[in-house]
Amino acid sequence: MTSKSSIKILIGLTSLTILFHIAILLGIMSPKLVWGGRVDLERELYIMEIMSLLVSLYFLIILLIHSGFIRPMLNTKVIRVSLWVFLVFFSLNTLGNVLATTNIEKLFALPTLVMSILLWIILRKSSRTG
Length: 130
Prior knowledge:
Low-confidence stretches: none
Oligomer: single chain
């Protein structure tokens, strides 16, 4: 798989993730789907979902800059370090989801694993070229 196709797939998955967080915030989807269904206070749910949404938006911007779809607003080193941080984050998140107690959380291990693999492909190929 090429780095360009990996980035396009990641952009699509991240866009879906953003839509998912918006659906949770708007009450379209059940909050029991996120955070292991353990967030009881509505205020906590909103804070955690807004943070997740912001992180997802940052990741999308990083991907769009790295792919050349938008003009660089950040230093190349910041982009590269951010991609590595997200690789670690998605890898740890995959492990956490696999070890989770609820089946819904376990189900989310698959997309985070796919995102980890795609990021690895991007980082491995970009380190060879630059």
